[in-house]
């Protein structure tokens, strides 16, 4: 069996696909997922077991969830990706557009936390995440500040000029922060008026910069600009691995659930293998490997995390009962309008 190969750019993967018209018979399958730490964790520690067991090569097509969705749409008539990892909000859009097929009934589905199973089993959570509060420990120590405890800390005047917020129009983390505060102020996914009305007099004055994604945060932590920002435990762990003085806090109102879901692409060239890959990725052994290699939090309740993750996150069974689950159908129905309003009213 050939060694697992990953491609540094999605374009290279699709060049290979285009050059190999009979690729569905070559025992090579393609999966779309985020690049960087996630890709490295899966390609080095998780996927090799599936390759060996099935005499198949798995090639990663890296990209953000939005990138992968765009590729699925562009090739929906003749899909070139067998399965895809998508953030839950993007996955809801993919399902509504008819890009995903029902997962085969399998015992592994019953091992998942209930919220990780999508309606109709058209996809399932492969990685559990939650958006909470990350903070710069060095800066907080220098200022003599206690760790944050609430989403409302983003509106605390003492943090003026030290809050970094991802754009709600382009980042799930930013959108989660907006919706969490909106709920505290009496709103819901059907009514975001409280957040848009209060933002300019609460969080807005504290924000030093709105950023399109989280890529710039490490630099802003190093310079001392970023003191407080929405992020996930996995995102914080990635920063800690770089030696940055950051920590994660679950806000007392509860973090916002953020799943990475796996989708079997409808009409893919090798459905049997794609379904087997999805079942493998949802299994406890695969998720344990992902936790060890990339600090990916399991959605399979039988999977065990390394001791270091258990220590930092606590009891996952308890934590999942505290997360806020948002209504992605309602969000996606109004997302374009919210994005325009955010860009014109908040990031003007």
Automatic annotation (TrEMBL):
Q: Give GO MF terms, alphabetically.
A: thiamine binding; thiamine pyrophosphate binding
**Which GO biological process annotations does it have?**
thiamine transport
Keyword check for Translocase, yes or no.
Answer: no
What organism is listed for this UniProt entry?
A: Trinickia dinghuensis
Which Gene3D superfamilies does this entry report, sorted A to Z? Periplasmic binding protein-like II
Q: Name one GO cellular component term.
A: outer membrane-bounded periplasmic space
Question: What is the protein name given in its UniProt record?
Answer: ABC transporter substrate-binding protein
Query: Signal peptide location in the record?
Result: 1-24
UniProt keywords (A-Z) are:
Signal
């Amino acid at each position: 069996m050939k060694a697992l190969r990953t491609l540094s750019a999605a374009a290279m993967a699709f060049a290979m696909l285009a050059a190999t018209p009979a690729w569905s018979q070559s025992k090579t399958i393609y999966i779309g997922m985020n690049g960087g730490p996630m890709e490295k964790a899966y390609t080095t520690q998780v996927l090799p077991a599936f390759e060996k067991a099935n005499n198949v090569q798995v090639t990663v097509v890296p990209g953000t969830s939005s990138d992968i969705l765009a590729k699925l749409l562009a090739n929906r008539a003749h899909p070139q990706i067998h399965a895809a990892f998508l953030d839950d909000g993007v996955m809801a859009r993919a399902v509504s557009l008819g890009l995903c097929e029902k997962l085969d009934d399998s015992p592994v589905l019953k091992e998942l936390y209930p919220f990780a199973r999508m309606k109709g089993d058209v996809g399932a959570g492969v990685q559990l995440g939650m958006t909470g509060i990350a903070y710069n420990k060095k800066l907080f120590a220098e200022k003599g500040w206690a760790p944050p405890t609430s989403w409302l800390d983003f509106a605390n005047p003492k943090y003026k000029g030290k809050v970094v917020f991802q754009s709600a129009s382009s980042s799930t983390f930013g959108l989660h922060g907006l919706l969490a505060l909106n709920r505290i102020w009496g709103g819901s996914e059907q009514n975001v008026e409280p957040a848009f009305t209060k933002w300019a007099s609460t969080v807005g004055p504290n924000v030093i910069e709105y950023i399109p994604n989280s890529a710039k945060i490490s630099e802003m932590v190093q310079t001392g600009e970023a003191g407080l920002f929405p992020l996930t435990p996995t995102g914080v762990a990635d920063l800690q691995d770089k030696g940055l003085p950051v920590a994660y806090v679950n806000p007392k109102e509860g973090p916002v659930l953020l799943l990475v879901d796996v989708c079997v692409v409808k009409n893919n060239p090798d459905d049997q293998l794609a379904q087997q890959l999805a079942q493998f990725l949802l299994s406890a052994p695969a998720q344990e490997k992902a936790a060890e290699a990339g600090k990916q939090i399991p959605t399979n309740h039988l999977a065990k995390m390394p001791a270091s993750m258990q220590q930092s996150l606590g009891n996952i069974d308890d934590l999942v009962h505290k997360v806020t689950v948002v209504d992605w159908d309602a969000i996606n129905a109004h997302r374009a309008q919210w994005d325009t309003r955010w860009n014109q009213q908040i990031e003007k």
